[in-house]
Amino acid sequence: MPVAMLPYACVLVLLGARTAEAAGAAGGGRLRWEPRCQHPLPDRVPGTAILPPRLDGPWISTGCEVRPGPEFLTRSYTFYPSRLFRAYQFYYRDPFCREPAHSLLIKGKVRLRRASWVTRGATEADYHLHKVGIVFHSHQALLDVTGRLNKTRAGQDCARRLPSARAWLPGALYELLSARAGGGCMAALGLTMHELSLVRMQRYLQPQPEAASRPVEELYLGDIHTDWAERQQYRPTGYQSPLQSALHHVRPCPACGLVARADVHHPPALPARLALPLRLGGRWVSARCEVRPAVLFLTRAFAFHARSRSWEGRYHHFSDPACRQPTFTVFAAGRYSRGAPSARVRGATELVFEVTRAHVTPMDRGTAAMLNLSEPSSCGGPGAWTVGTERDVTATNGCLPLGIRLPHVEYELFKVEHDALGQSLLFIGQRPTDGSSPDTPEKRPTSYQAPLVLCRGDARDPSGPPRHEPGRTAPRGRGPDPRAAPLPLLALVLGAAFLWWP
Ligand SMILES: *[C@@H]1O[C@H](CO)[C@@H](O)[C@H](O)[C@H]1NC(C)=O
Ligand SMILES: *[C@@H]1O[C@H](CO)[C@@H](O)[C@H](O)[C@H]1NC(C)=O
């Protein structure tokens, strides 16, 4: 999750007239969304997909990324005109990517195939790995990896290829995969490069104060399954947070130069960051059109009321990757628990969310017709559905055709960060890739979705102390909850009744 990811919608807002009415979000009343907060991106955000993608060149993480597990890493991938590529993955011990543990050098070849039939707007690719090597940056890092390998049979075979603690040479590169070594170590370590099999490129203009806008190019690669055991088989249908072109990235970006200059022997240590308390009060919106695996396009908008610990969310669903053709909107509301620091994911806060009310608005004829045909007791009771008209589905315990069940509880993981411009970003837990819901503590996420941005004018939680309270890292128990979206239409098509989010 790029720290410096500066969502263009919000850049526009940031740079727009500062008429901020100070935070109207407190209180338990109904949301009065500012128009720009309601539809953060669709119409006016001119991001353009580049089709077919042009991979050539260097691509980098813009901040510390978190993968399910959790794993903390940064990436620097270079694609050559010959279709060869060289990828560095730098892994860390800490959630700020300051203490490198080990790094991977991955070489291979990638070939773009065709437009994806599953994920609209994506291109499918084939790849082949020639060589994978690992460098340990400390003794401890070596022990961590071999300790993990020692737990399985295949892992023990692989561990024999790594040095013993005594024989380890700092700086040495050990082969995990090569023509000679075979590929057994990759699986044993849970490594795959399936992310290369789904690709999307996007370009947009980042407005600059007092200067011409600059282009930013993003490379979206396939998502990583949230269940470790599924990683080897899973073929991506969604994306990770994007890499950016090392030549055309957002500015400022303190991490970009460091990542771009790094190599497998010199991993980047990212600049120190302030640990921010989780202050959820205010309204948070998607910075862009989001894609979920399995495959939905949506934008989210949330309001958290710290005093009453209640929340409301709107999930706008679309049928296209630019989020221009709406299909339906879900309004959901409920309460959330006091937060507690996560033991598993340092720097994150655990919360429990409850969804007790929901409304549905069909936004196209297809969805309205589908709801018209559904059993009235499964979604909203008797009465017709028409495009653009909201109906309350609380009394029917949700809306099964859309995968909404009430009441519903979710175990969440949240964190707040600032990007390089000081904009607040809210990260909410990634939904399980299998489409299920994190409805037990064991299923609580260990990684995040794309961040939400705080609406202008909400920079202060009216019910809380100022944001930069030094020395406070423990959350005050506000939690938010946004997350993602349900599995709606697809679930329907497959005849499965499904789960969702908040
Ligand atoms: C892994 O297992 C081998 C052989 O059983 C042992 O020598 C080694 O110390 C173990 N390594 C770790 C880190 O547990
Ligand atoms: C849903 O049913 C109502 C009443 O029967 C009808 O007026 C409306 O056109 C239907 N909508 C769709 C999209 O079929």
UniProtKB/TrEMBL annotation:
UniProt cross-references to Pfam families, sorted A to Z: APCDDC (PF14921)
Keyword field: Glycoprotein, Membrane, Signal, Transmembrane
Compositionally biased residues, Low complexity: 472-482
Signal peptide, first to last residue: 1-22
Membrane topology: Single-pass membrane protein
Annotated InterPro entries: APCDD1, APCDD1_dom
GO MF, any single term: Wnt-protein binding
Residue ranges, annotated region (Disordered): 429-482
PANTHER family per UniProt: ADENOMATOSIS POLYPOSIS COLI DOWN-REGULATED 1, PROTEIN APCDD1-LIKE
Cellular localisation: Membrane
Biased composition (Basic and acidic residues): 457-471
One Gene Ontology term from the biological process aspect of the record: negative regulation of Wnt signaling pathway
GO CC terms of this entry: plasma membrane
Domain APCDD1 as annotated: residue spans: 36-272, 273-467
Protein name: APC down-regulated 1 like
Organism: Microcebus murinus (Gray mouse lemur)
